[in-house]
Amino acid sequence: MSRVLVGVKRVIDYAVKIRVKPDHSGVVTDGVKHSMNPFCEIAVEEAVKLKEKKFIKEVVAVSCGPTQVTETIRTALAMGCDRGIHVEVSGKDYEAMGPLQIAKIFAALAKKEEASLVILGKQAIDDDCNQTGQMTAALLDWPQGTFASEVTIDGEKVKVVREIDGGLETIKISMPAVLTADLRLNTPRYATLPNIMKAKKKKIANMKPADLGVDMVSRVEVLRVDEPPTRLAGVKVETVDDLVAKLKANGTI
Amino acid sequence: MSAEQAAALGVSYPPLQTYSEEEGMMRDAVNKFAQERLAPFVSKMDENSLMDPEVIKSLFEQGLMGIEIDPEYGGTGSTFFSSILVIEELAKVDASVAVLCDIQNTLINTLFTKLGTAAQKERYLSRLSTDMVGSFCLSEAESGSDAFSLKTRADKHGDYYVINGSKMWISNAEQAGVFLVMANVDPSAGHRGISCFIVDRDTEGLQIGKKENKLGLRASSTCPLNLDNIKVPEKNVLGQIGHGYKYAIGMLNEGRIGIAAQMLGLAQGCFDQAVPYTRQRVQFGKRIFDFQAMQHQIAHVATQIEAARLLTYNAARLKEAGRPFIKEACMAKYFTSEVATLTTSKCIEWMGGVGFTKDYPVEKYYRDCKIGTIYEGTTNIQLSTMAKFIDKEYDH
């Protein structure tokens, strides 16, 4: 039970007001504040906690993208990860990068690093895909514990309490496995200043998807990005009869 | 772009707002910590005039109290500029918390690091970085700006000193575990008798008086101290006997850059609260931000804050570069405290009636800023100091 891979994604900060590019090809990212995806922070926290409880020996933070993602890896290191891996992807490949490509990269790395667990955030706040964890598990043919709100290691098995529509579901899966972190799994720590200093000395390895035998070709093409339609004002009615009349009048019922 | 990236690209003179990767990460971490974890405590601490022990504990846990202390003593091992950024970020949320952090880092820790014997560093630095707050005791009822006319005496008796006197306006006194007391061993020698003594809180005869009921910075405890026949062993002398005045001056020269950072953060924090309101509030069919008079006032204040920032950062970089910095440090402290006064006053006006109520945060910034022109060297003292430097500059 030695090594955990944690995925961290660099996304537009949650507090930023998103603007669509004038050519509708995407959203404006230049000069916009970016930070670690909040669900990835929760994933890092869980991995570091497992290490503190001595269930695992090493936490490796992984991020895919251009040079800027090393900032995100450094933040993960400052939170307590031991080392980082930066998979360099830039230009058109980066713009077209989606869950399938990431999942292939993580699957390759999980095998290469002989990881016992891959912990990811359940989804990224920019694309809201909620696919990478599931795809990674499928490619590896590993069990998956997604939407985790509680994780307990029990020998060679992991007990995962999952947040599902109907409430909470508890499953027990064997390791190696893929877990994805949901909101209530933990409260991520702040990087303390001494840990930020220590993070400077931790290593970040560089590699390319080709080094892992992964082709980055996307089967998905973004045609157009638009803002959601402006919300129109509602209409207040006094009685249920009025409501039914109005709904009939505008053809809803 | 970080300083490292600028250097790699061959940019030799990056703008002042360029930070090393480490400084940038620290600043972001403290910003997040302050906005999320400290903010909920601020209003209650101000009302009750009491710093919450949870807040102090979290400052230590985050490593904010030993920023420049060597990791060998449990500190962070970072730089003076990092301290400045930390103080600025804390002050955006609460100037009282910022001053606690500033005094610890720029006054107490610096004195111990520069002047401490190996034994003193061993004994105090690890506590200062992990759980103990320090206080600096110079001012007295009869000696504020005229600091070196202090009357507290230290009489030598064999291998210990007996200290008698009283101190006033001592920050952090309620929380401090150690006090650096400036006392005179030989009044006939005037200021050349002033020496620095390390006094532990539990020393017999040390009485911490009732804290002042202040206009602002209320969560920062400011107390009088009574020293009644305090016995301090010789090994608790910090630095050399009779050199205390030099240490005080040297340290206050650096400390004033810290205060500049505090006032800067205060001004920025207040501004950040007020401007969103002006973008939301609609009168006469448009946002009040869109009235030209408002735009001009807001732009003017923003310019003053930017200038204050550049003065502060440059003074800090000059000090780090080992270049003369005293005049610039005075300019930074003087200017930022004036800018804080202007900014907070304007912000209340921009917010109108709600700005005047305690339900909104700006009135606290307005009250807190006033001490900036007073402590760690009044504005008049700063100006006179600057004038002395200017006079010398034309001396050839």
Brief descriptors of the model:
A: 253 residues; alpha/beta; Rossmann fold; 7 helices; 11 strands; 28% helix; B: 396 residues; alpha+beta; four-stranded antiparallel beta sheet; 12 helices
Summary, kept brief:
The complex is a heterodimer of chains A (253) and B (396). With 253 residues, chain A is an alpha/beta fold.
* Morphology call of chain A: globular
First-residue to last-residue Cα separation of chain A: 59 Å
Strand content range of chain B: 5-15%
Helical region count of chain B?
Answer: 12
Count all strands of chain A and give the number: 11
Low-confidence stretches of chain B: none
Largest sheet of chain B: 4 strands, mixed
Largest sheet geometry of chain A? 9 strands, mixed
Assembly classification: heterodimer
Q: Look at the structure and give the mean pLDDT of chain A.
A: 94
What is the CATH topology classification name of chain A?
A: Rossmann fold
Q: Element order, helices and strands of chain B?
A: HHHHHHEEEEEEEEHEEHHHHH
Task: Report on this structure.
The complex is a heterodimer of chains A (253) and B (396). Chain A is 28% helix and 26% strand. The longest helix of chain A is centred in the N-terminal third of the chain and has 15 residues, at 38-52. Chain A is α/β, with parallel strands linked by helices and 253 residues long. Chain A has a single domain, classed as 3-Layer(aba) Sandwich (Rossmann fold), CATH 3.40.50.620. In chain A, the strands form two sheets. A nine-stranded mixed β-sheet of chain A has the order 9-8-7-10-6-1-4-5-11, with helices on both faces. Chain A has a two-stranded antiparallel ribbon with strand order 2-3. Chain A has helices at residues 38-52, 69-79, 91-96, 99-112, 132-140, 193-199, 240-249, and strands at residues 3-7, 10-12, 34-36, 58-65, 83-88, 117-121, 144-154, 157-164, 167-174, 177-181, 204-207. Chain B has 396 residues and is an alpha+beta fold. In chain B, 53% of the residues lie in helices and 15% in strands. Chain B is built from twelve helices and ten strands. In chain B, the strands form three sheets. In chain B, strands 1-4-5-8 form a four-stranded mixed β-sheet, covered by helices on one side. In chain B, helix 7 (244-280) packs antiparallel against helix 8. The longest helix of chain B has 37 residues, at 244-280. The relative contact order of chain B is 0.11. Chains A and B meet through helix 2 and helix 6 of A and helix 2 of B.
